[in-house]
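Inputs:
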Amino acid sequence: MIYEYLYALILLGLAGFITLAAGIKTDSKRILGGFTFIILIGSFFILLFQEKNYSIFSLNISSFDTYWALIFLVSIMVVIIPSMNDIKKRFDVYYALLLFIALSMVIAAFTYNLIVLFVSFEGVSIGTYVLTAYNKTKRNLEASLKYFMISTIGTSFNIMGIAFFYLSTRTFNLQAVGTIDFNKSLLLSLVFITIGFGFKIAIFPMQQWAIDTYDGAPNSVSAFLSTGGKLVAYMILLKFLFLGFIPDYNYVFLFFAILAILTMTYGNLAALMENNLKRILGYSSIAQAGYMILVFALIGYSYYPAVLVSKEIFVRFAIASAMFYAVAYIFMKAGPFIAMSLVKSDKVMIDDIIGLSKKSRWTALFLAVMLLSLAGVPLTGGFIAKYFLFFSLIIGDLWWLAVIAIINSAISIFYYFRIIIYSYRKEGDNDFNMAPGIKYSVIIMGLITLGLGVSFALYTYLAGIAVI
Amino acid sequence: MHFRNYNGGVIAYYNILLAQFHASGITINIDFSLGLTGFTDLLVIIALFITIFAVLMGGRNHGAYFYGLFMASGFGLVGLFIVRNFLFFYIFWEVVLIPVFFIIGKYGTGNKERSSLKFFIYTHIGSLFLLLSIFTLSTYYFINTGIFTFQISDLTSISFLDTVPKSGFYFIIFGFLLAFLIKLPSFPLHSWLPDAYNDAPYSGTIMLSGGLVAMGGYGLLGILYPMAGLFPRVLAYFIILLGLISVIYFSFSALFQSDLKRMAAYGSAAEMAFITIAFGTALLSTGYVRTLDLAGGMYQIIAHTFVAALIFASLSMLYRRTQTSKIYDLGGLNRELPVLSSFLLIGMLASLGLPSLAGFIGEFSVTISAFQSIGLYTLFIVLGLIITAAFYIWAAQRSLFGYYNERLGRLKDINKQEFLILFFILAGTIFLGVYPTLLFKLLTEYASNLGGLL
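Outputs:
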């Protein structure tokens, strides 16, 4: 039966409606959250074990796409349990929305049709507008409004970009694009689409909404926005850039290299002067986006003749490092955001975290692990991710870019370590919200970050499947 | 291992293939390989010793966290010395760093948070350039052979390095040198040292001076020297210049310190400058002189560990009694603490290179072999030695001898446990000073098999 490849999607969609319907009877966060979690785990395993290399409708199920679908599901899973503490009521709609977002993300991972990509991406966006405002406090509403306004601009850029793309290639299907003449309209479409999805990734000139939204949203929603919401746009851009057109145009490389440099430098420098902890994490996620879009620059660069190895190998390494970065990023970025729920006040300043190690040694330790991972210190997932990213840069003879990235990563030490130092200070009598859901989420995510730090085999596996 | 029949090279070797990727003409090998040389087995031994000394000096009022951090940094040190793969070399290099950052930041005194951050950032910048150099090496290896590997034996073989373009090779040398000279530390890259040594708890200072500094020395003599065959000659002069400046500058800085701990920190840095000099002059010399030079440098690393441990352990016990380490607050301690001040005095004498104590062997070998290659410029080393002698003797005179500072009140001399700790370190120091052949033979066998400047 041909529909057996859609079981995971059908399961997610049905479960979303079931959760909504169950809301009539119950508003128990344990039942609804547990149900959602089980459904996500179920679809995770269905996707993991189902046969790869199959096309149905406009969906394409390959190892590469399945990998992205899996990590999107993971990015939702990590916020299910922490959100039981952040969200006050109406859990049915909340979890149903998460399931619909998961559905959209999985579709986005599997499709190569720009229209379907656009619609599924809007599915993620609309869901997260609601999630951001879910507690209906003034801060939430303000954050949501800002997010909504800015995202709408991004959406119109996306539509425009897709239209320009159609003009030059006469198709919406990225895989059907054959050899194309590189013309002005295609370049325009690249710029428009980069800006449109760049709003979600928070690339430099489009970044300021992200700081305010991450600050104002409930903690677990911020965790999702800065991981899953960002990665889905990232993946779409990766697909688009790699398949949509052949960037044999020198400026594509420079365009993304300059964007990457600006993004990471801005994120790191702005984070240095910030005292609001969630805003620091917001800036840090901008800086991380800067490292990640180095991969786009690399794909653009692969058409230069100066590359030392063959183009295919070069791109394979670049995409494999992007895939590894994505999975490491989910845990190391969502974890600190979730840890912000430990602090009782709504607005988390850096002084509020003083004395965390006194209250709970393990939470402080694993929070430190995730921050070290963001800073790129060995034995953590973030190190391996950066390691292979920089390796891809060096293999393409891009020393200057690697040196800039490394200097940035050295700057970032200041603010990550500042948080660690504050959490290990002894003075002060801050009270922390040691709900087991948050505490154990932080510890487990820290452990996974450590585990990714020694999983070299994952990278070699990814290098094998990194062919779009 | 058969130390008696050792004749250079890697003794024990063990390799596990962790992950492999093989497709379309390329291979990615990620190995974990371990090996020992005549040099690194001694470094492993001193890494274990120094961890034990540091923990013993920690006192009893600390929790599991404290000991865990020391264990972690000891683990990193041992791993760093035995690993034969650049990927894990880098990982262990950083693994040592993080626990020490926490030791300074959590258990230190004074402006501890600033010092720990400064220490971390300095060394981390060095490490990042080390990482870049490692990448560059492996990338060139990959381009040449299609195999992506981090094995030290493959990446530092002269036949491979010969094929690396000159600009790439200079970049590689720059990254390695930067990382190792920061750790050592050498003259322009040392400003983390006084703060970190001063604000760390005494056990942390022992770990820093004995263990972490040995990393820099190992990097220069154990990792970088095997590649030395292709170094430009001017680099050797530059390194020697840095070493000479370091000796004199650190000794002068020590001369002007009013705090015994800070003074000992600069003294330790001045001692480590001999390793830089040994590295630089060994690049220029050949034959037996070069062997003597390298072996002297290596011996200096080992000796320095014991000497620094002796000084800082005695200072720690002194601080526990007097609650101060300012020279002008002390005075005449010999009256109240005869045993402890004797230990401290012997430590200082060992550090200034008194014959029959550990510090002499290395400094002497390095100085006489440096004379063969840089001639009369050796006088600068001698000048440094004289200043070193001056500040140690001066400090000893003002704090240990003379009139007793009555404001300190009655003090209780060290107990049996403390005596045993100091006695063992002292025994090591004297043993290394009077019977160097035991280790020197191993080191010369190892050093004579290393390549020189071609």
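Remarks. The two ends of chain B are 32 Å apart (CA to CA). The first strand of chain B starts at residue 10 and ends at 23.
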